[in-house]
Amino acid sequence: MNEMPFSYSQGYSSCLANASSLLQIASLAAADGKFGIGCSLNILAAEEAIKALVCVVKELVPEEAEDFEKIFKDHKFKHKGIKEFLDGINENKHLSLSSVQLAFLEWKVKAYEYMKTHPGMTEKEFKSKFFFLSLDTIEKEAKRAETLIYLNKWLKELREVESDIDAILDWVSDANEEKNRGLYVALVDNVWLTPESFSNKTFEMEHGYVITVIEYVRKFLPILTTYARESKTGLFEI
Q1: pLDDT tens, position by position, 55-65
Q2: Please, are residues 159 and 216 in contact by the beta-carbon 8 Å criterion?
Q3: Element (H or E) spanning 192, and its range?
Q4: What pTM value is reported for the model?
Q5: Residue in 57, 47, 41 with CA at minimum distance from that of residue 81
Q6: CA–CA dist 211, 202 (Å, integer)
Q7: CA 160, 57, 22 angle in degrees (round to 5)?
Q8: Which helix (H) or strand (E) holds 18?
């Protein structure tokens, strides 16, 4: 049997595939009335999703993944990662470029494309069409503009994902304890708590939360790829 060559991107794909599998099994458990087990599997799926994210960070921006191995060993650390990821989205998803800003950035991209199709153009000729832009800096400015245009598009897509991130964050804060309660019988203040205490309503709500987390992780890959490429070339200087 030939072993596949090691890559962190392979880990990304494997973790996301396993997250989807866990969600499917969670639905089967809920369909059988085992809502506690279903809720626990929901949480495991979210953990797999954040592992996928860390894998691709390790591949593309390794200096940002110092605690890489910890994400595979520490459940609370996984939940901390989910919280930090969602906090970042919550803080930035409202940002957007105005139509004037977007047009200005697109103008820079257009200028760069024009320069590439007119080799030998002088600085004077270039400025006669594009005013204060310079041949010396237009490539860097255009690449930066492309990144900002893409980032604006990505944030718009995030805003279109229907979710209540604050509610998901509240859920994540207690997710590790809830995962255990969905699997095991516990004794709390002389009260027996069993997995049967979970309801279908709770399962469906949390199932939706995890689907959102996975969708955010999938949408994050292109912008992280762009960031990694341009940070290495010095073009990601906002």
Answers
A1: 888 877 777 67
A2: no
A3: strand 191-193
A4: 0.73
A5: 47
A6: 14
A7: 65
A8: helix 8-31
